Amino acid sequence: MNSSVALITGVSSGIGRATAELMSRNGFRTIGTARRVADTSAPAGVELVTLDVTDEASVQNCVQEVVARAGRIDVLVNNAGALLCGAVEETDLQQAEAIFETNFFGALRMVEAVLPIMRRQASGRIINVTSIAGYVATPFQSFYCATKHALEGFTESLDYEIRPFGVRAVAVAPNYIHTELSHNCTREHGKLAAYDADREAAISEFARHVDAGDRPETVARVILAAATTRSPKQHYVAGRGAAMFRFFSRIMPAPIVDIAVRRHFSLRA
What CATH code is carried by the domain that includes residue 47? Predict the structure, then answer.
């Protein structure tokens, strides 16, 4: 019997790499993507395909190549993403557009490319990697948070639309995970001194929590469970404190959430 086929974006490091390795070990024919395949070492048991999620032609070529190789796509994991740090006033429109092109429209392009295949199969699972920042906003990461809020809502709406075809969409929201994300953060276009104290405190606290975060394998295990369970939930969380943060954001009065976030990121009163 043929293995189920998983297509995972952004497998060069971090969550994507850990997920690709875990799914390969669990019987999936796993195909991962990277923008520069020649510079990427393939995770164990994983085939590589070139992909730039911000480029429509690249997306179409990637999906066509996967189908040519494997004949089908059973699971799509939209993991590729980027981080943008800085105050809104310091960030130019091009930077904001660029992070949406990767984090939101990149996932959208992939979904639109694989959905016709999954509908013909009458089966499939789309897993969008979001963030706890899609529930609790992180100071000085406004546009990153906006993309993750958008992806959470998009995934939920999508799931209602495609369920009659045997296809499901789920969101997996990691908390702090020890990856290179905080160190690869794109910074603001032009610093304004008025924001210096709070900006640097918030970014420093974020990096500290990421460095102390869970291993990417923690998220990979949740993604695998979401991919293989018969009746998936629309929303999953992953990592220490993730469930608490989601509950906290939904249940607690807004003034308490406000105080907690400001303290968490060492912001001035």
Answer: 3.40.50.720
